[in-house]
Specification:
Layout: E1 31-33, E2 43-53, E3 60-70, E4 74-76, H1 78-86, H2 95-110, E5 114-121, E6 130-134
Antiparallel strand pairs: 1-4, 2-3, 3-5, 5-6
Length: about 160
Amino acid sequence: MAEATTDTTGLTLLGRPAGLPASPEEARLERVPNPHPGTRYCVRFAAPEFTSLCPLTGQPDFAHLVIDYIPGEWLVESKSLKLYLGSFRNHGAFHEACTVAIARRLVDELSPEWLRIGGYWYPRGGIPIDIFYATGPVPEGVWVPDQGVPGYRGRG
């Protein structure tokens, strides 16, 4: 697993040209200091066009990911997150493996107070699969809105 950056002077991706990593394992997640340590607030990232590959057929799988976290000392640097998520484009793994791996990698790199991910996968074989992971219950006293992704309804 790539090591997280410990300060903003060590960022290698922000403000520089960077290609898509060949795999999630090769992707570098960078972090920056939380500008409000000790203040509990929710950070949300939405990736409505996430893609990976079915590990058996090689066919593309598509998902709308929503990641919410309450930071501790660190925030994920958004360009590195974008490249990390993009590295799944040619990665073969089941929906459950992708969704939970993303959450665990963010937890490992950031040590957030709390994190959840909703993986809203589009149908393959006629069945949509939604994957949800959280490090625990939503902490009291922090506004964490609904993820706002409706259940799959097809054409209406």
